[in-house]
Design a protein that fits this description.
This protein is an alpha+beta fold and 187 residues long. It contains four helices and nine strands. Strand 1 and strand 2 form a beta hairpin. It binds zinc ion. Zinc ion binds next to loops.
Length: 187
């Protein structure tokens, strides 16, 4: 009898915690790390995003803000995308702009997700970066100017380029979902 009571109590507890987790079922999940509301995030709106640093800070998760707006660098080998070979598209985690396709991703061994070509010419902005005593080319999101990483000239053919990108600033969407959304937007 005592055992039964304990079981019932446990079951009740389980129900309570389940309800707690699903308190906001209608909230659309864009990324796993996204808990704040981001009004500029859109995979269909290509208009440029121009927000103050203060506004960015309000709408971006702190790890994304650190990379995107403070030009931070995540620790190497920490991104789940570093060894990740699913077919789909990578988007900017700050604004939803499409950046890379999975078929241009390659294992560079450098510790960060690497690509040899962006999805389109306008998807990325290039800026000379002479910080830390190095001459590098910084790559930023073409829509919101989030810092993504750097591009180096030691990549594989056909471009010979290696876009070394912080995984934190990437949002991945599997190919089928991308296709479905594309058709929905078209219709
Ligand atoms: Zn962006």
């Amino acid at each position: 009898m005592k055992q039964l009571l304990i079981m019932l109590t446990l079951m009740q507890l389980t129900f309570v915690s389940c309800e707690g987790q699903t308190a906001t079922p209608k909230e659309k999940k864009n990324t796993m790390s996204e808990t704040k509301k981001n009004p500029v995030y859109s995979k269909s709106d290509s208009s440029k995003v121009n927000l103050s640093e203060e506004e960015w800070k309000k709408i971006l998760p702190s790890d994304v803000y650190y990379i995107a707006r403070q030009k931070g660098t995540e620790r190497p080998w920490t991104s789940k995308f570093e060894k990740f070979d699913e077919v789909g598209t990578y988007f900017c985690a700050a604004c939803g702009n499409a950046l890379f396709k999975s078929d241009t991703k390659f294992e560079s061994g450098c510790g960060w997700p690497s690509f040899y070509e962006p999805i389109s010419k306008g998807s990325i902005i290039y800026t000379p970066d002479n910080s830390h005593g190095m001459q590098r080319t910084e790559v930023q999101c073409g829509r919101c100017k989030a810092h993504l990483g750097h591009v180096f000239e030691d990549g594989p053919p056909p471009t010979g380029l290696r876009y070394c990108i912080n995984g934190v600033i990437l949002d991945f969407e599997k190919a089928k979902e991308t296709e479905k959304k594309y058709n929905e937007n078209k219709g």
